[in-house]
Write a structure and sequence with these properties.
This protein has 298 residues and is an alpha/beta fold. It has a single domain, classed as Rossmann fold (3-Layer(aba) Sandwich), CATH 3.40.50.720. A seven-stranded parallel sheet has the order 3-2-1-4-5-6-7, sandwiched between helices. Helix 2 packs parallel to helix 3, helix 2 crosses helix 10 and helix 4 runs parallel beside helix 5. The radius of gyration is 18 Å and the shape is globular.
Length: 298
């Protein structure tokens, strides 16, 4: 029998290595400026054409998890639209990486907090890419605050406008154009389940996203449109170095069973599962990809 070629899994940096390269950047941090780059290229990923002929719109896809998902979808045969708000340089790099997989990549610089811009995004994707099958709500805002009492009103409103209202606007815009077999995938967070004292407003919005997922799944079930949620644990992205205190950055990922932060490309296969026919009997699910973050007791 012929020997099957295998690709060695990439080496994942440990929490100790992350501490050695700890870096604090101003918000909004650019992935291009990070000394310790998140792993998002999926070089060891083996595609199987699971999304051939599909069109996906991914918000917050200029960097981090969104970038990795865009690359994974392209590897699986989908054309991809990436929506971002501020970091043009990162967005163009994501576009380059998607197009390197032989797929189309539409770049949309819009703000999901604005309902009209959300509807504009869906309209432009359908016009340029010919339809829409997969909506990934991934854009998010967070900002750590040591004292809950000191969280500014503007920060709380931005968190809810981005993480809750933005997801709702995008879903309202997309649903009329989705058909049987299509899907919505939201990005939640383990902190929406276990809580976190320095991100109270953010944790509240993520809990809301989990509820939104379950409710929309029930609403759309009869139309065979699936709605699921990926629940990440600590994942190394520009959001971490741009929003967390240095003390947290230095120990980021230490609390999970695997004793390290996740990398964006380790999240992407979950989004492929939920977008493909492999996940055809999954809806209303919260899919945990947390490195073993099971409680808030650590």
């Amino acid at each position: 029998m012929p020997t099957r070629k295998t690709t060695a899994p990439p080496k994942r940096p440990t929490a100790a290595e992350m501490k050695e390269h700890a870096q604090k950047l101003p918000y909004p941090a650019k992935q291009a400026d990070m000394k310790f780059q998140p792993q998002s290229s999926l070089d060891a990923y083996r595609a199987a054409g699971k999304l051939e002929g599909k069109v996906a719109l991914i918000t917050g896809a200029d960097s981090g998890i969104g970038r990795a998902v865009a690359i994974a979808y392209a590897k699986e045969g989908a054309d991809v639209a990436i929506l971002f708000n501020e970091n043009q340089e990162d967005a163009q790099e994501t576009k380059r990486l998607v197009e390197a997989e032989g797929r189309k990549c539409q770049v949309l610089q819009l703000d999901v907090r604005d309902r009209e811009q959300a509807f504009q995004a869906v309209r432009r994707v359908r016009e340029e890419l010919g339809g829409l099958n997969i909506l990934v709500n991934n854009a998010a805002f967070q900002m750590a605050q040591e004292k809950f009492e000191d969280i500014p009103e503007a920060q709380i409103r931005r968190a809810f406008d981005t993480n809750i209202m933005g997801y709702m606007w995008m879903a309202q815009a997309a649903i009329p154009h989705l058909k049987s077999g299509d899907c919505i995938i939201n990005t939640g967070s383990i902190v929406g389940i276990v809580g976190i004292p320095i991100l109270v407003d953010y944790a509240c919005t993520k809990a809301g996203i989990h509820a939104l997922t379950k409710s929309l799944a029930l609403y759309l079930g009869e139309r065979d449109i699936r709605v699921n949620c990926v629940v990440p644990g600590p994942v190394w992205t520009p959001n971490i170095v741009g929003t967390m205190p240095r003390s947290e950055i230095e120990k980021f990922g230490h609390e999970v069973a695997l004793k390290r932060p996740g990398q964006p490309e380790e999240l992407a296969p979950a989004y492929v599962l939920l977008a493909s026919q492999d996940g055809s009997f999954m809806t209303g699910a919260l899919v945990h990809v947390t490195g073993g973050k099971l409680s808030s007791d650590e």
